[in-house]
Design brief:
By secondary structure, the protein is an alpha/beta fold. It has a single domain, classed as Rossmann fold (3-Layer(aba) Sandwich), CATH 3.40.50. Helices cover 43% and strands 17% of the residues. Strands 2-1-3-4-5-7 form a six-stranded mixed beta sheet, with helices on both faces. Helix 2 crosses helix 7. The C terminus is likely disordered.
Length: 273
């Protein structure tokens, strides 16, 4: 009877050790990423009441992160904004940091470190999206451009630009970054909405731009930073020969493949992975 008891206890001890190791490995393979669109604190201030493009992209990326079975976790923008608004110092710090990035892609590493601590994260993803023309380098909101071009019947080669950068706030380094650019408007460079329905059509196009192109590409590449063996990406040629809204002008990684291209695109791996 005593031998049977000892045998059972040994089995139980082994099971406890195995479960502990499994739980530890799962915990070690989990990363918290704070996603900060540059328009986080001034959303829906446009004429149409739409979300800004950076926020639309941020929401799609957060959804992609939170669908990785806990491997990458990211708080939703409502909770992030709510917490920031409750702390005056944190709000000022975040506002100034995002303004720097929005204006000239300047990264304030020290401020990001302090912001990240408030959310118990070790990585932050900055997203900025804006419209430029060939007339000047001024960065303006997509909806502001749509309102102006409609009101004054202006026609320029408008480009929607999106910059994304992933920061490791422990080591103050850029883990990954990318820039996306697409022409918006018709072949004659007109970009207008005479009524709300037409403006809403533009919103649906932007949602498609985010979900199918930018967020998809960014999410896959960021997952590669943390889990190099989880998937591989390839470059897919995008046709922009016929102009029109959302004809993408660069090769954007989208689909899995067996091997990683032998170049510097994916950057340096960190966290000893």
């Amino acid at each position: 009877m005593k031998l049977c008891y000892n045998f059972i206890m040994k089995i139980l001890v082994k099971l406890v050790v195995i479960l502990t190791l499994l739980i530890s490995s799962v915990q070690a393979a989990s990363f918290d990423v704070l996603v900060l669109p540059s328009d986080l604190l001034n959303t829906k201030e446009n004429y149409y009441g739409f979300d800004e493009v950076s926020e639309i992209i941020a929401n799609d990326i957060i959804n992609d992160f939170n669908s990785t079975n806990g491997e990458i976790k990211s708080p939703d923008l409502f909770k992030v904004r709510e917490k920031i608004n409750q702390n005056t110092n944190l709000k000022t710090l975040t506002s100034n940091t995002l303004k720097k990035y929005k204006q000239n892609n300047s990264i304030d590493y020290q401020s990001l470190k302090e912001i990240d601590k408030e959310f118990s994260c070790n990585s932050v993803l900055l997203i900025s999206s804006y419209v430029t023309t060939n007339k000047n380098s001024l960065r303006r909101s997509l909806w502001e451009i749509l309102d102006v071009s409609t009101s004054f019947n202006t026609e320029y080669p408008y480009k929607l630009e999106t910059s994304i950068v992933l920061i490791d706030t422990i080591n103050d380094i850029v883990m990954w970054s990318n820039h996306y650019s697409t022409k918006i408007g018709a072949n004659n460079n007109s970009f207008e909405a005479k009524n709300y329905a037409q403006a809403n059509e533009k919103l649906e196009q932007i949602k498609l731009y985010s979900e199918k192109i930018v967020a998809k590409s960014a999410s896959q590449n960021i997952i590669l930073r943390f889990f190099p063996k989880s998937l591989r990406t390839i470059n897919k040629d995008v046709d922009d020969s016929d102009g029109g809204a959302l004809k993408f002008e660069r090769k954007i990684p989208q689909q899995p493949q067996e091997t990683v291209p032998d170049d510097d695109f994916f950057g340096d791996m960190i966290y000893d992975i």
